[in-house]
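Why run this: before we spend reagent on co-expression, it is cheaper to look at a predicted model of the complex and decide which construct boundaries make sense. The entries below are exactly what would go into the expression plan.
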Amino acid sequence: MATMLLKSFRSNLVNFRAYQFALITTCLVLLTAKSKKTLAKPGVKNVVLVEGVRTPFLQSGTTYADLMPHDLARAALQGLLHRTGFPKEAVDYIVYGTVIQEVKTSNVAREAALGAGFSDRTPAHTVTMACISSNQAMTTAVGLIAAGQCDAVVAGGVEFMSDVPIRHSRKMRKTMLSLNKAKTLGARLSLLGSIRLAHLSPELPAVAEFSTAETMGHSADRLAAAFGVSRQEQDEFALRSHTLAKKAQDEGLLSDIVGFKVPGKDIVSKDNGIRPSTMEQMAKLKPAFVKPHGTVTAANSSYLTDGASAVLIMSEEKALAMGYKPKAYLRDFVYVSQDPKDQLLLGPTYATPKVLERSGLTLADIDVFEFHEAFAGQILANLKAMESDWFAQNCMGRKAKVGAPPLDKFNMWGGSLSLGHPFAATGCRLVTTVAHRLKKEGGQYGLVAACAAGGQGHAMVIEAYPQ
Amino acid sequence: MAGLRALGVLSRITVRHRYTLFSDSTRRGFSVASSLMARTHVNYEVKGDVAVVRINDPTSKVNTLSVHMQKEMAEVLGEVWSNDAVKSAVLISSKPGCFIAGADINMIQACKSAEEVTYISQEGQKMFEKIEKSPKPIVAAINGSCLGGGLEFAIACQYRVATKSKKTVLGTPEVLLGLLPAAGGTQRLPKMVGLPSAFDMTLTGRNIRADKAKKMGLVHQLVDTLGPGLKGPEERTMEYLEEVAIECARGIVNKKIPLTKEKGMMQKVQDYVMSFPFVRNQIYNTVQKKVMKQTKGLYPAPLNIIDCVKSGVEQGSDAGYLAESQNFGKLAMTTESKALIGLYHGQVACKKNRFGVPEKEVKTLAILGAGLMGAGIAQVTVDKGIHTIMKDTTLEGLNRGHQQVYKGLNDKTKKKSITSFERDTTLSNLTGQLDYSGFQNADMVIEAVFEDIAIKHKVIKEVEAVIPPHCIFASNTSALPIKDIAAASKRPEKVIGMHYFSPVDKMQLLEIITTDKTSKDTTASAVAVGLKQGKIIIVVGDGPGFYTTRCLAPMLAEAVRVLQEGVDPKKLDSLTTGFGFPVGAATLADEVGIDVAAHVAEDLGKAFGPRLGGGNPELLKTMVEKGFKGRKTGKGCYVYQPGLKSKEVNMELNDILESFKLTPNPAVSSDSDVQYRLVSRFVNEAVMCLQEGILANPVEGDIGAVFGLGFPPCLGGPFRFVDTFGADKLVEKMRRFEDVYGNQFTPCPLLLDHAKDPSKKFHK
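The model came back. Tokens follow.
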């Protein structure tokens, strides 16, 4: 009885403190140039992004080729520790995302954390949700903190496409497993004798949607066609992405990158997939998926990438108590899902209005947009869908369109098309970039949105931390 | 009567082919239309240097090549050819589900002589020849059905683009109507897809999906279907198809897209082999033999098709085109073609719900009994988006039934008509259980339990205790009168008979039986469910054996007598198949189950007396006692061994037959007499059903007999058979048999009426 009383007293205290902070932030926000309201909610803890880092994103098969996924994850985790100087033992929990799993390190979060020198007393788990895996890792962290279970959580994601598990055929696996159980030499020999040429053909990891057997590129091409997105529009958008990324790289804006010493090779400190080309060059490429009349090409799609990212997410009070200056508040977020066949990549269209409604914002309130660019055609289709009343009414059951983000606020430092897209690492990059852009551009609200295989999507509202 | 196997050619005649009739209003429409009036069926617009020709029959759901359509098409193409600004053309339909579904059947049926029909064919040939020789490339943009004349049109074009939609099918189904592709189809197809594939297409009439058509070289390019964008999926897909086709047309003009494809190694080898007359002759002979084996020479169309192809390949295209048009004229005048066309029209009629829209849509359907029939019904229901409950009394039974449904879906997966994922989501709609839980949400219950009135009564009482008031109770009995079953019901207006045929997923017929108490809404609902399940439906009155079982029973009784008279099962089978039945009488009995046949013979014997007798019913009972219950027990008239396709006559049957031996009367025992003894009893019973009002009309009678019992499709059903063969001739034969066997062969009054007055016909 007594303990219960004590508990409720304590939680009241916490709430009171949170309220105080909220008040302070409101005052602070009032002082900034943009005098918009804060999105803090009474009774809900403020969760903040303290720091976000990533390894350079490299095209698969380049400098990282001989590593393992957890090596990349380790690099990101170590980079985070190094940059923040955060005491390892103060990390309550680690959540990591990954899509293509290395079977040796199926809980890559734990292996990477141990390898990165985190305390062996810090539990870690791995999540997967296709291209929004690290978003899922981050929102898991947000949940843990908001529920009062943790104060400091490291979230991140890693993808390593230079090496993917290629399995023996099912027939061969079955034979090999039986071989384990075979007791006599005769039984073993007869099993070995049953191996035929067909047994030897390997099984590559599926690049296709399991439910529809359609590859994502093919679906993107159909999506672009459904919204009447032309090849030229796509090439132009891809070129824009590369140009902006190059500019950001040259101006040193991609400060979330931490250098990575690859054993036996040079220190890597730059993304290597940023290649602004010309429209003429791009126009020469043949369609990659829908032949011969398709519009999605290698140049206007994101490419296979190796990379890892990590963020430190904390309760605001703890961060401040430990002397950290947070970069941003992580506010409302939503996950959506829709038809995996014809609307596979329309996640942002569905997620954006939903998250804005939750936050009580409109599209015009958002200063910084960071959308995941899976394909130029996919982004443009999403923009057209968001701009369409017909789509809102007939497919989303909404009264009217939400509107498309203005391009001058949209992915201004490049995107997945140019920087690269290590599936599970992209989410953290988007969130960190929003925080950095808000600071740089003096905005208050940022919006992250992404699509994912399976016909799913995610969006999150991020609020600048008062300067 | 449960237990028919797939019925060869006939099971392929489906309404999917969508040959449509022209309604009267259309006819009036085009007699008024003059060249001065705006065109109604074919229009075009010029996009840059490409003319987009759009086909749209405003009076119908599908486009058909009618006289009117052809006239407007000729005008439009004339304008396209004479317009210097136009460099190429795209041919597209404005209807999302249909390119061109074929020629207008009524146009052919209206012809009085072979010459008239030949003329129609020659006009078509001329028009398509002009298109083939068009100086400006024409691209056919195909979405939806492209069949018969529609396909011939498309293959006359220089280039074909088709969507990957499931609705997109290409084919030449003319053979199923006893006709042949008569607008150059038999001439162009061999050149385009090679002899073997051309024969396969024209002789089976099968529908070819777009991806297969691409592989065969029937279409050049495929276009994906699109999801919703800024417009609806269908609308946008059509636009996309048009855009791609326009690009292709320009590409051909710019020489970016070559019209002659470089031949692959396999193709070269095949061409080389085919260049020997010896090899070609071998193919003709093989195909001819195969056709003869399958049709027993009862269908002239396939043989004529072979003839046309042969003429074209061996003697040049002039001879080929001539043979095609002349054979077409001849075929159109045959009784076989008329019978098949009659069946086609009947099928269309039996795919409509003449009882209106039911008040409540069936969303949950419960099936009692997971046996062959129960699981079969579940199989055709669960993939139509209806939540299906399958209840059995034992776990073993349930397991077997569930496996049957799974296997049905999995076979589709293997054939790639659905994905494994679709199979799994479909199966998630199926609940297997041993109790009545969930029945409170059922909108319809179909019982497929053992054929015993006591069990049926027990079941109906149990079910009525748990189902909601609106729920319909349907019985899948094959012989028990529905009113007897309904006697145990508290709400007889909700009781109806739904007689499926086995195997349910293959047999297209559903016989719905109404009692005088069954409400109209109950009937409407049962028909709606049947149509959803993809069935062709006849609605008949109640009575012992309803319509189908009642017709079959005397024929099987006669078959037993024939066996007793010393004809062995193989001979009996060949006599029946020789008449046009897809399955021989002995095999049919085995498929149905000897026990079921014995059971039905006894029941109907009680109801109708000796008139329905024939052979000794004890013969069947003895067979059942010995365990010869047909295919299901491995032994019946034949011995069935798992894995073996060929079957041997059951030698142990000889002893039984010996003990029941009858001496045949040579006056009525010739092969032909035996055939007519079997058929006349069938036909007489069918006519009697019409006379008694069990049947609503002769059309349903024909459809039920052909699709449920395998009555020879070339004869068009018992009623058309009487019309063509002559009621008087049939009566004459029956009188002869009557003299020997008595009242079992007494013609019924309605048949006698028709015999007396030759102007009386069942079909106008």
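Chain A is about 40% helix and 15% strand. Residues 226 and 381 of chain A are 8 Å apart (CA to CA). Bring this page to Monday's planning discussion.
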